[in-house]
């Protein structure tokens, strides 16, 4: 099985080398090969200088946006360039530990799943304790998404989403920023026959805003709008 790991990047000069090293050093299960597709969304902090060397590594593709389009826009480009049987989203900021990837792959390799979401609210190795209101809003958005999808997810907003590539090819994604999360969840759940969804507990080391966290209150409102838009109108 070939796994395409798609990594959207924006102003991550401090972390980009470390996250690439971590992804490439994972002990992947036997029979799993990877390609890492990095999409730089017009970084301005020197990230691109480091990506020049990273792009020379085997099994690494680097795509450069000349205009900032947002996380969703970067993922659209990465998905189009992916060639694996499955596609996994990996953020570049070290909040999500690539050591959890084999755990995400297990339901797929066991033949039980078409889509696997990580969950920061199920039992994982560790979770950094940060913002109370973030967790409350996340849970409410997840519950609303569950109403429209008839799923029982615990963490719809999670970065770690592992999806069979042929399923991604069957849906048309529009959201360019953080509205990607509810949009892709709802559209995958609406496919027929319905994909087999699994969740796996993961570790989480969230950043503070001082450390570079990018998602904010307006993104929560956008996610709510997207749940209503795609949940009601498709």
What does this structure look like?
- The chain has 234 residues and is of the alpha/beta class.
- It has a single domain (2-233), classed as Spore Coat Polysaccharide Biosynthesis Protein SpsA, Chain A, CATH 3.90.550.
- It contains 8 helices and 7 strands; from the N terminus they run βαβαβαβαβαβααβα.
- The chain has helices at residues 16-25, 47-54, 71-81, 101-109, 132-149, 165-168, 180-189, 217-233; strands spanning 2-9, 33-40, 60-64, 86-89, 115-119, 161-164, 197-201.
- It has a 7-stranded mixed sheet with strand order 3-2-1-4-6-5-7, with helices on both faces.
- The model has no long low-confidence stretch (mean pLDDT 93).
CATH hierarchy: architecture: Alpha-Beta Complex
CATH class: Alpha Beta
Biggest sheet layout: 7 strands, mixed
> What's the mean pLDDT score?
93
Structural class: alpha/beta
What overall form do the CA principal axes indicate? globular
Number of domains: 1
- Residue share in β-strands: 15-25%
Helix-strand sequence: EHEHEHEHEHEHHEH
What gap, in angstroms, lies between the N and C termini? 32 Å
Number of helices: 8
Low-confidence stretches: none
CATH T-level fold name: Spore Coat Polysaccharide Biosynthesis Protein SpsA, Chain A
Could you name the CATH homologous superfamily? Answer: Spore Coat Polysaccharide Biosynthesis Protein SpsA, Chain A
How many strands appear in the DSSP assignment?
7
Strand order of the largest sheet: 3-2-1-4-6-5-7
Computed Rg? 17 Å
């Amino acid at each position: 099985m070939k796994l395409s790991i798609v990594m959207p990047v924006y102003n991550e000069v401090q972390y980009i080398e470390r996250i690439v090293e971590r992804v490439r050093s994972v002990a992947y299960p036997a029979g799993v090969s990877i390609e890492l597709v990095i999409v730089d969304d017009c970084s301005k902090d020197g990230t691109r200088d480091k990506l020049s060397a990273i792009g020379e590594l085997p099994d690494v593709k680097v795509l450069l946006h000349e205009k900032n389009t947002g996380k969703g826009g970067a993922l659209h480009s990465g998905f189009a360039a992916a060639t694996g049987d499955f596609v996994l989203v990996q953020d570049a900021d070290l909040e999500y530990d690539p050591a959890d990837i084999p755990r995400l792959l297990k339901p797929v390799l066991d033949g039980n799943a078409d889509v696997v979401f990580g969950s920061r609210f199920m039992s994982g190795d560790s979770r950094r304790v940060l913002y109370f209101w973030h967790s409350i809003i996340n849970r409410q958005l997840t519950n609303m998404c569950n109403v429209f999808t008839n799923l029982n997810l615990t963490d719809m907003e999670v970065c770690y989403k592992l999806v069979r590539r042929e399923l991604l090819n069957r849906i048309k994604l529009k959201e360019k920023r953080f509205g990607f999360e509810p949009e892709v969840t709802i559209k995958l759940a609406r496919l027929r026959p319905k994909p087999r969804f699994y969740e796996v507990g993961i570790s989480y080391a969230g950043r503070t805003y001082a450390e570079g966290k990018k998602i904010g209150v307006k993104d929560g409102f956008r996610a709510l709008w997207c749940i209503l838009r795609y949940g009601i109108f498709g």
